[in-house]
Amino acid sequence: MSIGIQLGMIHSELEEIVGRDYVSVKEADKLVYSVDWFWLPQMWLDRGQKLQTPDFIVHPSTVEEISEILKIANNYKIPVIPWGGGSGSQGGAVPVYGGIILDVKRLNKIIDIDEKSLTVTAQAGINGTQLEWAVNEKNLTLPHYPASANCATLGGYLAPRGSGTISTKYGKAEDLVLGMEIVLPTGKIIRTPKIPQHAAGPDFYHLFLGSEGTLGVITEATMQLDYLPEVRLFRAVLFDDLSKGLEAGRRLMVQRLEPTVIRLYDKKSTLSQVKKVLGYEFDGAYMVIGFDGDKDIAALQEKKAMAICKSLDAKDLGREPGESWWQHRYDFYYPPKGLHFPWMYGTTETVATFSNIEKIYYAQKEAVETTYKDWNVDYIGHFSHWFHWGTMIYSRFIIKEPPQDATEALQLHNRVWNTAMTAVLENGGMVNEHHGVGLKLSRFMRRQYGEAWGMLENIKDALDPNGIMNPGKVGFGGVK
Amino acid sequence: MKLENVAATLESCRFCLMCRHVDPVSHVTFNEALTPHGIALTATSQKRGLFEWNEESVHVIYSDVDGGNARAHCVTGKPFSEAVATIKAELAAKGFAPQSVYDVHDKLLKFHSPYGEDRLETGKQKSDIALFVSDEAHYLWPSSIDASLKLLKALGHKPVFVGRGRSNGFLASSLGFPELAEEQARGVLEEIQNANAKQVVTLSVGDTFALTQLYPERLGVSLPTNLQVKDLLSLLANALAKKKVSFKLSKDKSLYAYIDPTHAVRVPVRFDAPRTLLKTVLSGEAEELFWRRERAHPVGTTAVQFTNPELAEKLTRARLEDAVQTGVNKLYCEDPATLYHLSKYTKEYGLEVKGLYEFLASQLVKG
């Protein structure tokens, strides 16, 4: 059978399931669905190069339709790439092998808001900000505020284990999920219990968090909500030394002061990013600290936090530079304030224990700055999602005059990533904290997990015997 | 708009996804290609030689509803609407636009409107105050004209009509005919000046947007310095606050909602006026729709009603579905074009849509 006939057969079967209006083979649509927020495919288009496009873009409206689509894909052994908002920065939604883009945005209903248990159950294609507006009408909030909320979907929050700006208090997206509905690669629809803490065997739902569509399609989730806080207090301080800032953050966490936000910028970030977006010229490491909830408790927490900072020689910058950061927290990602073409850039972020984090920062900084000195590389970073045992570095490299040739640019880009991730892996860090793995970090997964990686591969084989689900991502191979 | 600014805007928007939450077209089509990001990526990729303009790619550009929500929510103030209008102008000039675009162009040229063929004569009466009765009010919802005259009379005004039956220029601009749009804008302003009006009252947000933003910013047509543009609902709300006008309370106790019309997000200062007026005259409880105020979506009144009627219908139905979800059965709106489009389908949803001017006029307390 020729490829043309086979694609024609698949096309007609997909139309049978979702209707003609919801299957696209238009070249104009394929172009837009060939690229997500990963620098590499964007660069490829920027340089006028054609990308691998999907064969079909399908917009199912029910979980049953998704199940049927996956059965067809298995039958023809054609890749399926789940697509939410397309805002992932790791190439997780890029159709590197063509196939079916499964855009889940028609699954956008809120099924239930439980005002007693403070939970919301919604379909996975719902837009993040729209979901937030809906729960806000009941004085509630889903305390996951990623910079991508305006475009990302609920499923996109969970699939790569995202973090939002207030994760330090409320947890990552994975900490907020109680249960999910998932369509397995074979088309089987399963539901996990909506009770996350129990002793009824292993927590298999965690397997799907971070799977980025390689083990199934998340179609619904029940999420923990909170009341909208009575107050949100922000304050900024300045450290003359990054180490002292890191120590202040550590003490805030291990003393369980429950900060909503701790964001510590290194000196270079303070001088570049903070100045560019917020307009402040501070010489030092700028830190924003926030508390929220009951006004008396938040005020007390802030008072204790300021005492810790003062004991480490921090200069109190007052409320305004803290509140301004909160108001403009997403502006860092809007053009032209964010990083943009023709620059080459990447967020080589990582997470590690307090014992290792500073070591990783300096190891990565030195490795990147030394190795790519001839490219005048900039290395900047901030520490933004904190845990009781450690924190993450949101580190970035920027090369303002990269090679014009697309292939040369790709090779340089990957070399910088290799350097940055080697520094992470050699010093006890994880290759990623919240952006996910996607295509970008796929090659580091075996190194990250060692022998344990084989177990994950076995699970992938068991769940997705034909390898149709998002091939080439999260370290897994292509279609079999 | 200068070409270098167009390029810079589209280059910025092509990989920016930050207005998706308020993008009306992708909310009803679910298609990434029809978002501001998709439109910008399509246009910039064509410039890079990745494809030629063809029916499919032109369809992407002409499915744009003029990007009012994207513009209103862009943190860095990128003039996306203006950039897309410029791309459309390029397509229209090269003959690549859909036939419907040229058909509307011909009607605008011949009759000043795509909605009718009256081509009304310019009035000769003079007054300090003019009422801008554009083609949408004249052809699509004419009962709003008498009602608005009664309301203005209650405020002590006796306006002259200007622009009666004329497009305000928005449509021509949004279809890619900037010269025609400019000509239409100058035609409207000429009528206002011929009437010696110092104040022009508008009946729709679209007309307010056209006079105060589209003309000076996109078309380069400045308003006379002594001319004030006031929308009728704001005038009424101010007069009510100063007790210069009063209304009877209706006995209707139905749950109701105000539906923010097309272009509402472009003139946010007037969000409160209709709500205040409705609260004064209705004893029923007011509900707010989900897609309201800053997030209000257009109905199918923009250029897509000609270039993509299916999309226009979807946009209109989406607003009615929002009302159904909210649980109201009565909607109020003042905008003639929005009323016209909504009323095509309201019965299917068990809804009633009422003209706000007509309702307010019926509740006026004389004297």
Beta-strand proportion of chain A: 15-25%
Return the structural class of chain B.
alpha/beta
Query: Hey, which two chains have the biggest interface?
Result: A-B, 44 and 35 residues
Q: Strand fraction band of chain B?
A: 5-15%
* Radius of gyration computed on alpha carbons of chain A: 23 Å
Number of contiguous helices of chain A: 16
Number of β-strand runs of chain A: 19
End-to-end C-alpha gap of chain A:
18 Å
Structure, explained:
The complex is a heterodimer of chains A (480) and B (367). Helix content of chain A is 36%, strand content 21%. Chain A is an alpha+beta fold. The two termini of chain A are 18 Å apart. Chain B has 367 residues and is of the alpha/beta class. Classes of the chains: A alpha+beta (480), B alpha/beta (367).
Features:
heterodimer, A: 480 residues, alpha+beta, eight-stranded antiparallel beta sheet, five-stranded antiparallel beta sheet, 19 strands, B: 367 residues, alpha/beta, four-stranded parallel beta sheet, 18 helices, 9% strand, globular
